[in-house]
Amino acid sequence: MSEIKTTCSRCGAQFTTEVPQSVNAAASSDLKEQVRSGELFTRTCPVCGTVNLLKFPFLYYDTDERLMIVLSDAPLAAEGLPEGYTGRLVASVGDLIEKIKIFECGLDDLVIEMCKFVTCQELKKDVPLKFLKSDGSDGEMTFTYPENGQMEMLAVGFNVYEDCAGILGRNPLIRESAAGLATIDQAWLSRFFR
Ligand SMILES: [Zn+2]
């Protein structure tokens, strides 16, 4: 744990709070759930009671799944990544939670980014899609996006995932670029598709 100083987004009160520096999901399902729900990153202001979302450098890893996700604003070198691990660098708590959900569903986040890209093109919308879940016997995926101040949900058939997985399979250079501690998002994908 480390102590950080934070300022309430509503009343401006300053307070200090203890935050974890890392969580091994394989060692504690309880802590994993706290990351997944975002609870680990929220603190209630002692003055006005507003729930604030905190952001601090954080390492999420899973020794069973051989997964490491680093939440940080600064670019990091991949040297700390153990052999055989999938490494991801994310810039927000929302991105971290999205990655956890994708990997939890046994899906490939490279393919998911491509699904977002083709879905936006089909809809002729430029919205930041976020993966929410995948379920049903056909593996239908649900994405969310903000529109007019609300969170909209969007269902995408699993055939889109299969098509995108096929495209990535035929372009091995794209997968090679995801080695090490990679940032896999729409900006990354735009290096290959414009
Ligand atoms: Zn406050």
Short synopsis of the structure:
The chain is of the alpha/beta class. The chain has helices at 29-36, 93-104, 109-123, 158-169, 172-176, 186-189, and strands spanning 2-7, 14-19, 22-24, 42-44, 51-53, 58-62, 67-71, 86-90, 130-135, 140-147, 150-156, 181-182. Zinc ion binds next to loops.
Topology:
Layout: E1 2-7, E2 14-19, E3 22-24, H1 29-36, E4 42-44, E5 51-53, E6 58-62, E7 67-71, E8 86-90, H2 93-104, H3 109-123, E9 130-135, E10 140-147, E11 150-156, H4 158-169, H5 172-176, E12 181-182, H6 186-189
Parallel strand pairs: 3-6, 7-8, 8-12
Antiparallel strand pairs: 1-2, 4-5, 6-7, 9-10, 10-11
Helix pairs in contact: 3-4
Zinc ion binds next to loops.
3D architecture notes:
With 194 residues, the chain is an alpha/beta fold. It has two domains: 104 residues, no CATH class; 78 residues, no CATH class. Helix content is 29%, strand content 30%. It is built from six helices and twelve strands. Strands 3-6-7-8-12 form a five-stranded mixed sheet. Strands 9-10-11 form a three-stranded antiparallel sheet. Helix 3 packs across helix 4. The chain is globular.
